[in-house]
Amino acid sequence: IVTLPPISLSLPLSLSLLSVSLLSLSL
């Protein structure tokens, strides 16, 4: 099992949050 660094987990999460916020703003 390979342990992922915090950055690899935080980046996708931040990107997903940004995408959701952009979608909510566009609506």
Automatic annotation (TrEMBL):
It comes from the Eukaryota. This is Uncharacterized protein. It comes from Nothobranchius furzeri. The gene is Nfu_g_1_016582.
